[in-house]
């Protein structure tokens, strides 16, 4: 079971998004996929999966926790406006 906890949250009103740093505990499992994480994050922040962009998943060797950097947009139209094309394609 994956546990997600918000470590840091920053509002970026100019770009219509929240920038989050999360600690993900995945004891006994490998690093969770972006798809699995986006579902967990959507539930955590009461948002749609389509409004979430996972920037980076950092797991230290041998650890069962990851640090994840995420951007949660107010509306998915802002993703098209502000995110690079390859981020839009992989989410």
Commentary on this structure:
Strands 1-2-4-3 form a 4-stranded antiparallel sheet, with helices on one face. Helix content is 26%, strand content 40%. It contains 3 helices and 4 strands, in the order ββαββαα. The longest helix has 12 residues, at 34-45. It is of the alpha+beta class. It is globular and about 40 Å long.
Residue-averaged pLDDT: 91
Overall SS class: alpha+beta
Order of strands, widest sheet? 1-2-4-3
- Helical stretch tally: 3
Report Rg: 13 Å
Q: Write the H/E string, N to C.
A: EEHEEHH
What is the 3D form?
A: globular
Question: How much β-strand is present in the residues?
Answer: 35-45%
Number of strands: 4
Distance between the termini: 22 Å
- Which bin fits the share of residues in helices? 25-40%
* Low-confidence region ranges: none
Q: State the major sheet.
A: 4 strands, antiparallel
């Amino acid at each position: 079971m994956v546990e997600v906890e918000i470590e840091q949250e920053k509002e970026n009103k100019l770009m219509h998004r929240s920038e989050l740093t999360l600690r993900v505990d995945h004891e006994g499992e490998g690093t969770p996929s972006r798809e699995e994480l986006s579902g967990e994050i959507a539930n955590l922040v009461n948002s749609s999966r389509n409004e979430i962009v996972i920037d980076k998943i950092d797991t230290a060797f041998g650890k069962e926790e990851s640090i994840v950097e995420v951007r949660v947009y107010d509306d998915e139209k802002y993703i098209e406006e502000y995110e690079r094309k390859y981020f839009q394609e992989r989410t």
